[in-house]
């Protein structure tokens, strides 16, 4: 069967655009993956029309298809079985148009996030989605998982930056809804069916993205905070004082701050490491002098009110880069063990109690481990990492998951803030979604993919 699939795919996209199983297994699956990629064939179409032809053949022959972007996902949402076709969008990397007046970009789904950021910068524009995997993550993958990232507090999730999409359905039908308008209230907004659907309802091949004017001024600070209550009040204070220019509010518990500021990590502490909490604060505006005055005044009043205990204010672009480098140095959690990585949402008011309870239950039930917490507190999103011994990883992972996810239901939290469900979080979806919601999701899946060929087994 694999040979038949390879031959059929080569007839559609060409000999050099298809990899056989032995070649697939040699490809990197990303830093968080510890298994080998597998599939009957990996096909690399170069256009929406070729994607459509691939899907028509697979639909006719009941072959499942798993779409690959940059493979930066953390929930095994791109895992394929040996008999599946992997459809990689790595040859669909054209930035087709940038409209500086309408402030839109029309792109193919395989365009890498950082590539678009750099290209629109030439037009004095910005695409504000930003995350640590910017150099690898693709825009189609960002949309398929509704990625969040560092500046959600100001610009929203990926969903808020997509104006239109072109999608190939399971039977090969092309649905082109490349809307260029911010306001278009003409019936169902079909793009929202596919954004965040993790490739289970259709394959996003092209997008129209909303751009913003490039900020003319950036101000940043890194502060130590002595209580969680002060941290929550600091968020409100800075948001109110900065008049809508607050663009990031990234919090680290002390253990994570110490991890990324202690060798072998390359980062150095901008403030002392004896505070329980640390926060990276960023403001983006239009006038460096006026915005700096307002930012400094807000920090000074926060210090006077006892909301911060110590702070370093960036004096240059290099300082800003160094601050963000600390936040982005998540790879340090690989030191000395195996990390179990979580991405949760919960009300800010519940965070301190949740973190304290988790620390206690882990200490009682997991003999040897390390716990790190950090994330987008302004968005209600925390990243939790529990590191265990490599030889205990498989045995302990289900127990760790139960301890992390279990308390979320009672505080109306979510098991996934921005990483999606994939295979990894599927058993816990019921903690965040009601039976009625799950029934509607299943109805949509059945309507658009009745054979269950698109990314099968994910989410449900």
Kindly summarize this structure in a few lines.
This protein is α+β, with helices and mostly antiparallel strands and 460 residues long. It has helices at 2-13, 21-24, 48-60, 113-121, 139-144, 152-155, 191-194, 228-241, 254-260, 288-304, 317-328, 348-365, 393-405, 435-448, and strands at residues 18-19, 41-43, 65-68, 85-88, 95-99, 104-108, 125-126, 162-168, 174-177, 203-210, 212-213, 217-225, 246-253, 277-285, 310-313, 338-345, 370-376, 381-388. A seven-stranded antiparallel sheet has the order 15-12-14-13-17-18-16, sandwiched between helices. The chain has a five-stranded antiparallel sheet with strand order 5-6-10-8-9.
How would you describe this structure to a colleague?
There is one protein chain. With 460 residues, this protein is of the alpha+beta class. It has helices spanning 2-13, 21-24, 48-60, 113-121, 139-144, 152-155, 191-194, 228-241, 254-260, 288-304, 317-328, 348-365, 393-405, 435-448; strands at residues 18-19, 41-43, 65-68, 85-88, 95-99, 104-108, 125-126, 162-168, 174-177, 203-210, 212-213, 217-225, 246-253, 277-285, 310-313, 338-345, 370-376, 381-388. Strands 15-12-14-13-17-18-16 form a seven-stranded antiparallel sheet, with helices on both faces. Strand 17 (370-376) and strand 18 (381-388) form a beta hairpin. The chain is globular and about 70 Å long. The chain starts with a helix and ends in a 12-residue tail after the last helix.
- Spatial strand order of the main sheet: 15-12-14-13-17-18-16
Rg measurement, Å: 23 Å
Report the helical percentage.
Answer: 25-40%
The chain-level structural class is alpha+beta
Largest sheet: 7 strands, antiparallel
Mean pLDDT: 94
Shape: globular
Q: What's the total helix number?
A: 14
Number of strands: 18
Tell me the span between the first and last alpha carbons.
Answer: 27 Å
Can you tell me the residue ranges where pLDDT is under 50 for at least 5 consecutive residues?
none
